[in-house]
């Protein structure tokens, strides 16, 4: 188990980082872009930082998912197939990451995210209203659940963007409902991955809980704003997060 000593200043940084990340993540994903560098900066080794990131992220996605479900913008029962296959995929991915280096996938993800960003930019009405689905819901959840679940457990950056765009494009949902489904699936992959990081003793509970406290508050505020303001509010944040993720991954490649 990774234990680090935290001074009051570091605790404050972790809390407010979690709050900001929870806010952003509940709207458009990408919270890991904010939290992971901070966890590394407080002295956690990479595997422990990844595991601790899953711990704090689990609280944020649970808070946001509950809010979307409670306000009728996401349906847990209709998402059950996605939950099952996302859990399976994430468990496989988180087991694999503790054995392998994810370096090879870093070069592919920015390209895929760029395609998602370009498609969104050239589809100005995407996410504003429901459209005809291009894929059967169960098939979508099986394919995307296994694929994005594995990816989130194995590497992670951009998962929320892939889920949101996939739900809008292939299931035809508006961005509010897509954000709700994304949070449910993010929570599922987080809890699955977290289980394996705990087994591998790659979680710092102290750092994770302080950051999680901020996550819960930020996720509630962000999901409330997403539900109230709709696609006009979600879309620019979604595109900004996707662009920043591309830049970060290209910079690290």
TrEMBL record:
Q: Which family does it belong to?
A: Belongs to the 4-toluene sulfonate uptake permease (TSUP) (TC 2.A.102) family.
Keyword Transmembrane helix attributed: yes
Say if the entry is tagged with keyword Thylakoid: no
Q: Report the principal subcellular site.
A: membrane
Q: Which GO terms describe its cellular component?
A: plasma membrane
**Record's protein name:** Probable membrane transporter protein
Q: Which PANTHER family does the entry link to?
A: MEMBRANE TRANSPORTER PROTEIN YFCA-RELATED (PTHR30269:SF0), TRANSMEMBRANE PROTEIN YFCA (PTHR30269)
């Amino acid at each position: 188990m990774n234990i680090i000593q935290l001074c009051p200043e570091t605790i404050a940084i972790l809390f407010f980082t979690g709050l900001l990340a929870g806010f952003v993540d509940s709207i458009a994903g990408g919270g890991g872009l904010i939290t992971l560098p901070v966890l590394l900066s407080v002295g956690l080794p990479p595997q422990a930082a990844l595991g601790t990131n899953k711990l704090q992220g689990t609280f944020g996605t649970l808070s946001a998912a509950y809010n979307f479900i409670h306000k009728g913008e996401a349906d847990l029962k209709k998402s059950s197939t996605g939950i099952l296959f996302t859990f399976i995929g994430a468990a496989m991915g988180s087991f694999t990451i503790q054995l392998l280096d994810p370096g090879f996938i870093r070069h592919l993800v920015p390209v895929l995210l760029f395609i998602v960003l370009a498609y969104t930019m050239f589809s100005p009405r995407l996410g504003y209203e429901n459209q005809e689905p291009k894929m059967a819901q169960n098939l979508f959840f099986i394919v995307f659940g296994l694929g994005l679940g594995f990816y989130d457990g194995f590497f992670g950056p951009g998962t929320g963007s892939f889920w949101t765009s996939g739900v809008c494009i292939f299931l035809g949902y508006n961005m509010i409902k897509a954000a709700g489904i994304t949070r449910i699936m993010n929570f599922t992959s987080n809890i699955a991955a977290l289980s394996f990081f705990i087994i591998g003793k790659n979680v710092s509970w102290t750092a994770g809980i302080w950051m999680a406290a901020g996550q819960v508050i930020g996720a509630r505020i962000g999901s409330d704003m997403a539900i109230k303001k709709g696609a006009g509010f979600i879309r620019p944040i979604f595109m900004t997060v996707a662009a920043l993720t591309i830049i970060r991954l290209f910079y690290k490649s």
